[in-house]
Amino acid sequence: MISLLKQTGIGVDIADNSIEVVQLSKQGGALEILNYSRVRIASGIVENGRILDEKRLRLALESAFSKAKPQKIEGRDISVSLPESHVYTDVIALKAHTKKQREQLVRNAIERSFPLALLDLSYAYRVLYEDARGAQIFVVAASNEVIKEWGRFFRESGLRIEGFDIETLAVFRGIYGKKPGYPVCVLDLGAATSALAIFDDTGLRYSYAVREAGNAFTESIAKTFQISYEEAEQRKQEAGIANPKNEVSALILDKLEPVFAELQSGLEYVRKEYQIDVKEIALAGGSAKLKGLPKYIQKKTGLPVQLGKSAIRTQKTPLVYLGAIGLAVRALDDAWESDPLISSETEQSQEEQAPPQNMQRSEGQEDSLEGLSPLSQISKVMPFPSSSKPKPRDAARRQLFLLGVLGGGIILLSLSFWYRKEEEKGDIAQTSVIETEYGNTQVFEFQVPIAASPAKYGDKQVRGRIIETIIPEGAGEEAFISSMGKELQEQVAQGEKVWGKPLGKGNAAEKEEAKKLEWLVYREDDVARLLLDNVEQLNPRGIKFILREIEATRLQVTQEADRYLLDVSLSISLNELIEFPSPSPLPSPEPVARVVITKTPTGWLNARAGAGTNYEQIGRVYPGEKFVLLEELNGWYKIQLKEDLVGWVVVRHAAKEEK
């Protein structure tokens, strides 16, 4: 029955550089915008989703409420989301087990799938689908530190929140209002990140975040033309990407390339894996209005592209309000009640939390399901049919997503693609009986190629990229590297892994200047996919197995630019060993060119960080020593000095060796 009473909901969307607030009303089943407001916030207040200056942020939020149009916003109950870069999601599959076992099984899945330890995470889960064969459970998690930070901020600002929504889902709601009934892709080009999400009638099927977005475009323009950030922003808006021959447009397109590459990859992934053909692409976020962007994406993908046109959004409410609209929609429309929330109640200490296994279940949840396997990597979500009816929006629902903070470390295991292979065979092993059902362990040594540039991505490559960190002037290199885990992780997207050692040093004109370190980041799901594909090639008899452990052991730099080889050890459990003719199904790498150091007047030769004598000396090489040749540039050879170090030597004191 449709209520004739007027209800209101407030959505608050806070990004690094702005706050959007929307107040919706619902009467007789119809939603409409009552009031809305947008306030820009200065740099140094919020950075990468973390609060740096609570006082100034609170003033900005108060201003957004008081200066809303056409009237100020009075409510205190709000709907909010956590920053996309701090939220992790996954879907896990379970077979029959008892209620008491479920908590541990969910925690096991989180340990395998999420990049933070359980001690550092709060998580919620909800049963999406359940039948006699098993169930699928949607898990959402976020850093305790981030949840506490934002939860405390809203409470001390006099605002009440039910929990933290998921930004990707909120933008989808903001655009479509109701489920569209056909597969769609939402590309949200924000200030700090660009988020890609693909939905069909069952829900979210694929999501991925790329750390290239509006701010990066502007910073690149400012740095290239040596102009202020404000002037660079103006040039960006004026030029867009309508004319690729324009210098500013060319810079933006270069920054957009990883976004376009991920878009193409995502569309191809769901087409191959789930037979989903996306029917349209909807653009959201402040950078979505770049001149020429919809036409450019349409040309690259062959799909219709539209700026996110919400059925609720009016002429007076710009595109940037889509997230705030979607947050408010969830509070008013029961059709979206099944979208999960992360609890904001994290201020208790672990000693105060009771019982220790504090994850609450929804009313009517049955004892069932034993044995789990993550359906996907963090960013891949498998389909699930909907069979449960919406429940009343009451206090019981607020307890549905209580967090669980439990100790534990990250275990380097990935069962994602094993599930996919075994699901196709209709025979998924239960983890509780692995030890008895699979009596043998077999180890494979593989070598997988990593492409560190979108231009070289392909089906047989692991997608990767290079990120940089700066060693401040006067800082000790070893001490700096050992303490910089947090800085690295802030640049790493969901589903990515950083190779444990830097590739080498970048440019530094003088020894006393700050130095750059380059790091290789790669997609873990791509590694698992290639490994499982190769095991399947060696397994024509279809011997059943379960993947137990993947361990990256060595990284090699190849002669080809932006291409690396990762040595990986793969451990599986099975009853009958797989017989194969060679230890690795992948062909041996082609012979590489080498250089030999020739006689020098000093008896040694400097190896430098770049192709020139103005670069820092990073070591010495000696006559007769041989090295893999990586590149030749302006009279210099780039060589592999050590496993994790490259350098440059002058050509006149080195000779190429025949392959």
TrEMBL record:
Matches recorded under SUPFAM superfamilies: Actin-like ATPase domain
Keyword Transmembrane: yes
Keywords: Membrane, Transmembrane, Transmembrane helix
Compositional bias ranges of the Low complexity kind: 343-353
Superkingdom per UniProt: Bacteria
Transmembrane segments: 400-419
CDD domains for this protein: ASKHA_NBD_PilM
Gene3D superfamilies: 3.30.1490.300, 3.30.420.40, SH3 Domains
Family annotation (Pfam families): PilM_2, SH3_3
UniProt keyword Ribonucleoprotein present: no
Chain intervals for the UniProt region annotation (Disordered): 342-370
PROSITE patterns listed in its UniProt record: SH3B (PS51781)
Domain SH3b, chain residue ranges per copy: 590-657
Protein name (database record): SH3b domain-containing protein
